[in-house]
Amino acid sequence: MSETFIGSDFNELQASDPEIADVLVNELSRLRNGLQLIASENFTSPSVLTALGSTLSNKYAEGYPGKRYYGGCEVVDVAETLGIERAKKLFDADHANLQPHSGASANIAVFGAFLNPGDTFLAMALPHGGHLTHGASVSYSSKWFNPVHYGVAEGSEDIDYDQLRALAREHKPKLILAGGSAIPRLIDFKAIREICDEVGAIMHVDAAHFIGLVAGKAIPSPVPYADVVSFTTHKVLRGPRSGMILSKAEHAATIDKAVFPMMQGGPMMHVIAAKAVALKECMTPEYQAYAKNVIENAQVLTSELVGHGLRAVTGGTDTHLALLDLQGIGVTGKEAEARSGASGIVLNKNSIPYDPAPPSVSSGIRIGTPSVTTQGMGTEEMKQVASFIARAINTDSASEHAAVKEEVNALVSKFPAYPRP
Ligand code: DSN
Fold this sequence. Notes:
By secondary structure, the protein is α/β, with parallel strands linked by helices. The protein has 16 helices and 15 strands.
């Protein structure tokens, strides 16, 4: 243990537990050696990783800054207070709760705050781009509550606001939820606010996917419209794997009580400190430029893939992600994911709206540019990436996959993730 020890000491881990030390090394090597195009992942900064690997992990701090159920919280209180203040400033929000352990935990707290068992809420259907926690049949959110789902219009493949309004009028939901995990287009928050006001519903935006673009002022914010905004902190936002909730002042106490003690126990103070670090990073000009580059890269990658014969759901993207329909080239999402993987390209199969294939096969892939943009790649590299994907998914040939992988590695070696000092 050196004088500067604050938590992480890789040499000590290597000596005491070489098997797990190898896992850490191998994962870093995996990140450095392929193209990471999972839309919900990113490469968080070494400073965020330092906070995560710190002794703050040891502290029990049930409660909130200044009102804890344990002694010795005066130091961790500083981290949580800084994080809350930074979140309020960055998002211009009345209130911020940094304690949710994940996006799913944040959502269960929002439901706990506003719904009773059996209450009706309205949300985007999972096969149209929603999320498991938005009332999917396998989730607590459908077992304990009564979800009604809206979707996208068949022609535009964008949210069907007429259907949303009609369902809201018919079912009078207590809460209307906007957001999801495969929505390439901007959401009309004003329209949803008007529908909520008309039927007296709480407006909840699950901004997990796009909140980092909001933080970077690259797309409009839901905060002025929504009663409550929940999100994960590890996607475009580039923080630790965790969750957060913003709300209007009038809901602050309800949200705080729903997170703790209703849904969670002790907060993870090392993760809260890491969230505070990420929020400070988001305020820099570098991050603001990054957020815009993420979108530009996604748009170029998408239009290049369209040039290679794939079809972009909704015709393109306004955000960090795109959904590509593969039916025109006669390849399934499952095949495309496996073939890309064999070529050093990590992406995921994804259902497209009105998908004739089951989710385990699916007719599409989802791509995202948060990680490659963090690596410093730009639009020229996106053209190369599109051609790699097209070559990979159009063949079953192992030798062609190996050839693409070699070119992928040549590209990423120029833009290393976590560059060595
Ligand atoms: N699993 C996340 C995603 O990939 O979008 C959402 O929870």
